[in-house]
Amino acid sequence: MQNIDLICVGKLNAKYFAEGVAEYQKRLAAFASFRIIELPEEKIEEKNASDAVVKKALDKEGKAILGSVRKGAAIVAMCIEGKQISSDELAQFLADRANSGAGDVAFVIGSSHGLSDEVKRAAALKFSMGRITMPHQLARLVLTEQIYRACTINAGMKYHK
After folding, report:
1. How far apart are CA 45 and CA 114, in angstroms?
2. Where, in this chain's numbering, is S-adenosyl-L-methionine bound (predicted)?
3. 87-99 vs 136-154: helix axis angle to the nearest 10?
């Protein structure tokens, strides 16, 4: 069974997002070993922090992220400059990984400041959910649903339309 991890910086605070993510996490159990790893967000005290302060926080978060990735897993960095792909293309990416013998995948959602350059460089795929900005908690729900949708596509199920 393929291992799929979702590594997130920050916690789900809203009950409705947590319930949605939990539902798709439960459904994913039929297709993959899916786990969510929550890492703490680095605190930035200054409201208008300098680029250097933000970079330092991102670098610290990046080390924690990379330290949480399973050995050999393909990292998918969720970032605005990433490639926009369809549900079918995401399904194909997961299938290709599963069929390669090195099937583990780690999706990464950074903090509100984004992801460190180190994480982006380590990524096998930089993936964007579009040009819109959404809260990280909503992004986690949407991504979890898309991973589930990709798994149903690969299984030939009718969920995907």
Report:
1. 17
2. 110, 129-134
3. 60
Enter the pTM of the model: 0.93
Q: Which one is the CATH code of 3-155: 2.40.50.140, 3.30.1360.30, 3.90.580.10, 3.40.1280.10?
A: 3.40.1280.10
CA distance linking residue 118 with residue 63, whole number of Å: 8
Report whether 143 contacts 6 (CB < 8 A).
yes
Q: Is 70 annotated as a binding residue?
A: no
- Whether 78 has a binding-site annotation, put simply, is no
Q: Is 65 within any annotated ligand binding site? A: no
Average predicted confidence (pLDDT) for the chain: 93
Tell me whether residue 130 is annotated as binding.
yes
Digit-coded pLDDT (tens) for 69-93 = 999 999 999 999 999 999 999 999 9
If we measure between CA atoms, which residue out of 126, 140, 129, 112 comes closest to residue 82? 126
